[in-house]
Amino acid sequence: MADKVLMKGNEAIAEAAIMAGCRHFFGYPITPQTEISAYMAKRMPKIGGTFLQAESELAAINMVYGAAAAGARTMTSSSSPGIALKSEGLSFLAACDLPSVIVNIQRGGPGLGGIRPSQSDYFHATRSTGHGDFHMIVLAPNTVQEMFDLTLEAFDLADKYRMPAMILGDGMLGQVMEPVDISRGNNIKTYVKDWALTGTKGLRKRNVVNSLYLSAEELELLNFQRFDKYKEVEKIARTEDYLLEDAEVVVVAYGICARIAKNAIDTARKNGIKAGLIRPVTLWPYPKHQLKAAAEKAKAFVVVEMSMGQMIEDVELSIRCSRPVLLCNRTGGMVPTREAVLESIEKAALLKGEQNADSI
Amino acid sequence: MQIVFEKPKALSDTPTHYCPGCTHGIIHRLVAEVLDELDITGETIGIAPVGCAVIHFNYFECDVAQAAHGRAPAVATGLKRVNPDNIVFSYQGDGDLAAIGTNETIHAAARGENITVIFVNNAIYGMTGGQMAPTTLPGQITQTSPYGRDTKTAGFPLRMCELLATLDGTAYAERVAVDSVKNVLKAKKAIKKAFQYQIDGKGFSIVEILSSCPTNWGLEPVKALEWLRQNMIPYYPLGVFKDKEVSR
Amino acid sequence: MSQTVEIMIAGFGGQGVLFAGKILAYAALMAGKEVSWLPSYGPEMRGGTANISVIISDTPIGSPIVDNPGVFVAMNQPSLEKFEEEVQPGGLIILDSSLIQLKVKRHDLQACYIPATKLAEDNNLKGLANMIILGRIARETGLFDLDTLYLAASKSIPERKKDLLAFNKKAIEIGYNY
Predict the structure, then answer these.
(1) pLDDT reported for residue C159
(2) Is ipTM > 0.90 here?
(3) How far is Cα A76 from Cα A74, in angstroms, rounded to an integer?
(4) What is the reported pLDDT for A355?
(5) Topology of the domain comprising A238-359
(6) Nearest Cα to A177, choosing from A51, A12, A353?
(7) Contact, A63 vs A52, CB < 8 A?
(8) Which of A35, B34, B58, B111 is least crowded, fewest Cβ atoms below 10 Å from its Cβ?
(9) Is B117 helix (H, G, I), strand (E, B) or coil?
(10) Over the Cα atoms of chain C, what is R_g?
(11) Cβ(C54)–Cβ(C36) under 8 Å?
């Protein structure tokens, strides 16, 4: 306990990035993630790193593209509307197989939306990040400790698989302060990047970072190869399970919603309902096998999310719609209450495995 | 047998894809000669734009990053900040640099980013087949200004060198043309100076090169150069607009 | 038996409720407990009402949101009016009686009145009503002793303001012993 420090979620991300060896951060101010930029602005000059406040989100993500192409560990952070602007660069990063870490501390939308916490960028993060066929690794922390741990992991996975990795948090996780054990940041693995643009020094052939292929055959082949790699990446899909063993009602929630759900599950158990939780830690790859396995025992599912219902589609797909799935949601910056989750669990407990949730 | 003329070492053996009479070939050669003469190819990283020069990574023997449309100065910034000892240059057309990427261009200059920008201005979008560019002249006919650029509705061309010269971060801004042997020689001198400024850590340097596009202008190569001389140079005067060393 | 205390401190922006919460969080950390500190944030940070939720527990904390505080501190009248009904039955309300003329209406909980702002002024500790309140919270709940609070305060005060530590300690002590 003694070696823990109190940190805000946003600060934990920034500190983890620095400990992971990130020395190049490019950002643009937007609530509620600004603490990340502020932290970087304070620390980077003292450790020989670069903090650059870019002229736009577009510029920031393309600076990340340049720094990643140079072989550096690099990061940018933003919140929902800003992340949408970064879509262009995210597609290029994926297309050029450039390791990079992108943080989205989500706020309510659409449009300018609000500044309160939200999870309504789930589709954007896992499905429609930018144009073309590609994925990012998407990690969803639910505590400040995980903001730290998963940021370390994001840098490692990005380098290991040569692809962008996103930390998908929300405004509440960014602002909450909790004790963090940062000692894990002292053990960092590095990767050889012989593809990086560092100048040929006359010793090797030129390296090129490029995503233009005028031959359709060539582009198709590259996409097939990249998706073969994604099959490998799918093995990292993971969950945190809570009281799942005998659960008849399985709550599926990520991020802050999972913590609210835990409280509700505790109460449900006291009331005699066998409820449990699956918390996807990776949103892409989605832990579909874990969901499918849970469906064999469960009678019904409850999805808790701060959106109009986005992850619920992955739950239904994973279990092939074999069980009713209820949605307990708030949006626009509102957060589901423990009571609301409990009500949904109680409702689901009455379904007894009926196929069609719409009939109730 | 004595070799009296050869391809610069910084250029590859790959034949270029540029149209007959296009001046990109000349400008590639000038950049390559400068890389050879300064002996910096091994340290250099080029940025390919979106536009006719999008696959210039096939021609230059240095490391190259291809950038999203207009973002070359941002990508250059990322590369340069990671390895300040690398020589980083972007090679951009008028649509890339002065329309979709104006913001990146201006702010890279304002930061005094220690990079070199080769700006090829031929007053038209070449790769997409001849649409109006931010530098298309008033009255000039293009696919998207079929009655001639009407300044009442399409506004006026941007003079990028003049604009960038007002910024404190710009170390060097010169406009040249490649319409004649004399001007080609001047262009090379400017390019070399721009790279030298970067080597000396002086800040943002840009060379705007008035260039021709015979295909999309609908003119024979020689006529195209005449058109450049008669129409572009009066609107875009040649010369040095900013030189940090001189103005001090 | 594991114990979880859900605390909410509410007041005007500028009264230092977030900072008081931060010291509580540090004290909890030093006492080896689990803790979460969640501010209400947004436009209301500037001049409007501000509140901070702190959960201190022997076991890992679920949601960091406090809907029904067991300990509620009101540093202004609007906060009392807004949150009184939300406090857990059997809970505790502490209020700054120099700024709040109202009495706690509920009878199913414990009320503690302390004229924190006046005490601060009388002792040349203007602006440290939050620290006086903090001392009172520690005493009323029995969560922390004075030494732990002092240590937490010295952890929370930035280096450039270290000369103010003695004043903070004095204010905490006044509240603790009131």
Answers:
(1) 86
(2) yes
(3) 7
(4) 52
(5) Rossmann fold (3.40.50)
(6) A12
(7) yes
(8) B58
(9) strand
(10) 15
(11) yes
Domains with residue ranges and CATH for chain C:
4-177 (3.40.920.10)
pLDDT digits (tens, 9 = 90+) for B164-206: 999 999 999 999 999 999 999 999 999 999 999 999 999 999 9
Taking contacts as CB-CB distances below 8 angstroms, the residues of chain A near C64 are 172, 176, 178, 256, 259
d(CA B118, nearest CA chain A) in Å: 18
Architecture of domain A4-235: 3-Layer(aba) Sandwich (3.40)
CATH number for region B24-247: 3.40.50.970
C-beta separation of C109 from C83 below 8 A? no
* Burial C108-132, CB ≥16 within 10 A → b, else e: ebebbebbbbebbeeeebeebbbbb
So where are chain A's domains? 4-235, 238-359
Split at pLDDT 50, 70, 90, the class of A354 is low
Q: How far apart are CA A123 and CA C126, in angstroms?
A: 51
Residue A297: its pLDDT value, please? 93
Yes or no: say if A199 and B86 are a contact pair by the CB < 8 Å rule. Answer: yes
Please give the Cα distance from A173 to A105 (Å, whole number).
8
Question: Running DSSP on this structure, what letter comes out for residue B111?
Answer: T
Give how far C53 is from chain A: nearest CA, Å. 9
Phi-psi region of B35 (alpha: psi -120 to 50; beta: other; left: phi over 0): alpha
Judging contacts by C-beta atoms under 8 Å, the chain A residues touching residue C57 are none
Residue B119 near residue B160, CB atoms below 8 Å: yes
Pairs across A and C, CB distance < 8 A: 56
Q: What residues contact residue C148 under an 8 Å CB cut-off, 6+ apart? A: C27, C30, C31, C138
Which residues make beta-bridge pairs with B207? B118, B174
Task: Please check whether residue C26 touches A, CB under 8 A.
Answer: yes
Which residues of chain B are at the A interface, by a Cβ-Cβ cutoff of 8 Å?
Answer: 41-45, 48, 54-55, 57, 60-68, 71, 74-83, 86-87, 103-104, 106-107
Across the interface, do A206 and B63 touch by the CB < 8 Å criterion?
A: yes
Q: Tens digits of per-residue pLDDT, C133-177?
A: 999 999 999 999 999 999 999 999 988 888 899 999 999 999 999
Residue C18's contacts (CB-CB under 8 Å, 6 or more residues apart) are C39, C50, C52
Q: Which two tokens stand for residue B13?
A: 């053996």
Q: Parse chain B into domains and list their residue ranges.
A: 24-247
What pairing do the DSSP bridges indicate for beta strands A50-53 and A24-27? parallel
Q: What tokens does A137 get?
A: 């690794």
